[in-house]
Specification:
The chain is 46% helix and 16% strand. By secondary structure, the protein is of the alpha+beta class. Helix 4 runs antiparallel to helix 5 and helix 9 runs antiparallel to helix 12. The chain is globular and about 95 Å long.
Length: 803
């Protein structure tokens, strides 16, 4: 069958409607201007939705908001619609207005009818075929959505909206609603994408009479309700089915109830309340809808007080990998458990966005997962159609290619994850490599949750479409955990007393590598890195150029070993990649002399050739690897020094909420300084235990000096004796019959006296590591740690006292 193309739309015909036809949207809006100006008294929801849909520029957004009165803002917005939007844009604006109609009660009657709005022939066709498409498109909806996203018909925000709903029926309904709201051109693009993905369905819906036999579902008025079951996760209570009536975009509040096995009724949050709270959460985090996956929503759940396991299970159970879907699930979970929206918003306000944002590489890796999902749906579609029975035909080969690419993506993501999780990922044997190998190796890392790896293994062992799709969700959470934007401190749950074991969220390796001068790096790169926008024709040459840049940088690390290197500027790609492998195999690039994670990631560039593997998306990540190598090669104290916070013991009732590195390490005054920041629930006193490690003149060192001792079971008389030791010891903290003290410079003499006091009073003496006492004046403080001449010291940087 033939589908309308965008070329058919170049001449839209006369602007005014002939007699008896429906009038254009812009004329409809102009005729209703007086009513709209009087009714749009709160423009914020409409402006936000119109901006997120890509219909309004940032400049226009601020121009409208700058007007002093509600009527002035409404007039300015309507002027923008008339002057700067075409008919498709105006139709999209109308759809945004419909979705915000709960905020404008005066317009509900006006919005219930679209009798005066003109629609194109393809729009009317799609409107008529809506029900059959919702019932039959099935798993093809995501590949079609991705095709529309790639050609610019859908924005990232709209793609997230489609992926956020749980069933294929709802996803199709959401997709078609968006296309109809965008007008004739978007509807044509949908039919073109459908013809490319599912020719059989495209042919079926062209048969006359098929549509008329089915009931019509309107996305503008008269929504057909349908029922689906979802599970509400609640620890300690079996998940029970919840009957949810979904009215599409209908804004009428929906009351939903579920009953636990004991008969208790639990109310789900009202749809309008949920949407309002979600918008406020996005605003507090300064995250705009449509930016893709940029948040670790599980970490946000922990920050607002929920158990990590509870949040993780909620996000892995039928929730998409996009930020909007995950935030909606988290907000729903919190409101179900607490019925307290203000509590959620206050907790989110206390949490800085940097705590939950992902690094740029993490965001880029997550973009591969929708690609894997699309291949999985296409593979499943071919299997369901029976293509696997026709061994050797074109469809069978295409289905095999889809599943091969899925496993290639999984393989790359796990290989890359090893660089973030393992101290020496070189333990992987390339010749025997597959994703399951990485899962076994990652089990030794404390940076990856064991439960995620176990579920990943189970999904891959099953191998079915649903299991592989579930593994995509698990991989998404694994990637989010490994790629925080900020190197904060991961504070584990309390152990004995009020002790928080802690570690850096990012893996930091220390080596004896000192870095290269910036001018040497610039000279090696020459004209810079290749283009970041690969095209199928240019991809082979772009990948070759990128590998050549890596070769030049690696040869600069140890020029005396590469003095006899041949000129590779005209060499084929195979020669260049072999040179990279042989260079990285030299002893100079071992884990003591070069960051093993950087080395592992560079190897991925030659192992995962985007041309040979048929995945052009990898080229952007390989470009990021080159930029990461360039950044790593620059000189800096981070190569050979690391301050290691080990544990925090807090006294009294306050809690440690957050810890992060603020500045450093910086070499100055014959020492190395680094500043850490801590956030507590209220002014607090705590002990922090630290160490440092690194290389000095090529020799590895690890320091925990000066030492602190912990004396337990010391009575009042013994306390007096300890304090009588004077300058030989410094009392850091006292809690009950336990004292923490730091030995003075006399060292052995003071230690002997402490042992004698402990023995006389039957007290227990234990080593406490290198500890410092911090007393804060508020909820935030900064402490500067200094390493010099084999010892660590600490001073107050801001809002605290340090001993």
């Amino acid at each position: 069958m033939e589908f309308p193309t965008t070329l058919d739309l170049e001449d839209p015909g006369p602007v005014g409607p002939p007699g008896g036809q429906k009038q254009p949207v812009k004329s409809h809006l102009l005729a209703s201007r007086e009513l709209l100006v009087a009714s749009l008294y709160n423009l914020a929801p409409l402006l936000d939705r119109t901006l997120a849909a890509g219909l309004l520029s940032q400049e226009n957004y601020f121009e409208v908001g700058a007007e002093r009165t509600p009527q002035g803002r409404a007039r300015r917005l309507l002027e923008v619609v008339q002057a700067e939007m075409d008919e498709a844009g105006a139709r999209g604006f109308m759809e945004c207005l419909r979705r915000c109609k709960q905020h404008y009660p005066r317009l509900r009657a006006w919005l219930r009818t679209d009798a005066d709005i003109q629609r194109g022939p393809t729009e009317r066709k799609l409107q008529a075929q809506l029900s059959v498409l919702c019932g039959r498109l099935g798993f093809s909806v995501l590949p079609v959505s991705l095709e529309l996203f790639s050609n610019g018909t859908l924005t990232q925000f709209e793609l997230d909206q489609v992926q956020a709903v749980p069933t294929s029926y709802q996803q199709t309904h959401q997709l078609l609603s968006i296309c109809l709201s965008k007008g004739e051109r978007a509807c044509c693009s949908f039919y073109q994408a459908l013809g490319s993905e599912d020719q059989q369905l495209a042919s079926d819906i062209s048969v006359s009479g098929l549509v008329e036999a089915l009931p019509d579902i309107s996305v503008v008025s008269g929504h057909e309700a349908y029922i689906t079951s979802v599970a509400v996760e609640d620890p300690g209570v079996c998940s029970t089915p919840v009957e949810v009536k979904d009215y599409g975009d209908c804004s009428t509040p929906i009351a939903v109830e579920t009953r636990h096995t004991d008969g208790e009724v639990l109310s789900l949050p009202d749809t309008h309340i949920l949407s309002g709270v979600l918008q406020q959460v996005l605003s507090l985090l300064a995250v705009a809808p449509g930016e893709g996956a940029r948040l670790n929503v599980c970490e946000l759940g922990v920050a607002v007080g929920l158990p990590r396991r509870t949040v993780r299970e909620c996000l892995l159970d039928g929730v998409g990998v996009g930020d909007i879907a995950q935030l909606r699930a988290l907000v729903t979970l919190f409101l179900i458990k607490t019925q307290d929206a203000s509590r959620l918003l206050s907790r989110v306000a206390e949490c800085t966005a940097h705590r939950v944002l992902l690094s740029e590489r993490g965001c880029m890796l997550l973009k591969l997962l929708p690609v894997a999902e699309a291949f999985l749906h296409a593979w499943d579609h071919h299997l369901r159609a029976g293509d696997h029975l026709h061994t050797g035909d074109h469809h069978h080969l295409q289905a095999g290619d889809h599943i091969d690419k899925v496993w290639n993506i999984f393989s790359f993501l796990l290989w890359d994850s090893m660089a973030e999780a393992l101290e020496d990922p070189g333990a992987a044997v390339e010749s025997l490599w597959n994703p399951r190998d990485a899962v076994r190796l990652l089990q030794d890392s404390e940076r990856v949750e064991t439960e995620l790896l176990q579920e990943l293994e189970e999904c891959w062992a099953d191998g079915g479409t649903e299991s592989l799709l579930q593994s995509v969700k698990v991989l998404a959470q694994l990637l989010r955990d490994l790629h925080p934007l900020q190197d904060s401190l991961c504070l584990s749950p309390l152990e004995e007393g009020a002790v928080y074991p802690c570690r850096s969220r990012r893996l930091h390796r220390v080596t004896c590598f000192q870095g290269l001068p910036a001018r040497v790096i610039r000279k090696a790169l020459g004209h810079g890195a290749p283009s970041t926008h690969p095209t199928p024709a240019a991809l082979p040459s772009q990948h070759r150029d990128l590998c050549l840049c890596i070769t030049r940088l690696l040869d600069r690390v140890h020029p005396h070993e590469s003095a006899t290197s041949i000129d590779l500027s005209q060499a084929p790609i195979a020669t260049i990649t072999q040179h990279i492998r042989s260079t990285l195999a030299r002893p100079a690039f071992g884990p003591q002399g070069f960051d093993a994670g950087v080395r592992h990631r560079v190897l991925s560039v030659v192992k995962y050739d985007p041309v040979r593997w048929g995945l052009p998306n990898l080229q952007e990540l390989h470009k990021d690897t080159l930029l990461g190598l360039e950044s790593y090669l620059k000189p800096g104290e981070h190569h050979s020094f690391q301050l290691v916070p080990e544990k925090v013991r807090i006294f009294g009732g306050p809690e440690i909420r957050w810890g992060e590195r603020v500045r450093g390490p910086v070499a100055i005054d014959n020492g190395i300084e680094e500043v850490l920041q801590f956030v507590t629930s209220e002014p607090a006193s705590f002990l922090i235990s630290v160490s440092c490690r690194g290389y000095d003149r090529g020799q590895y060192f690890e320091v925990r000096e000066p030492q602190c001792v912990r004396v337990s079971g010391l009575q009042e008389e013994g306390m007096g004796e300890v304090q009588g030791l004077g300058g030989t010891v410094l009392v850091l903290a006292v809690e009950g019959e336990t004292v923490w003290m730091r030995e003075g410079r006399q060292g052995r003499e003071s230690g002997t006296e402490l042992e004698q006091v402990s023995q006389r009073h039957s007290a227990t003496l234990q080593e406490g590591g290198c500890c410092f006492s911090v007393t804060t004046t508020g909820t935030r403080c900064q402490v500067k740690f200094i390493y010099k001449t084999g010892r660590i010291s600490a001073v107050a940087e801001r809002d605290c006292e340090v001993f």
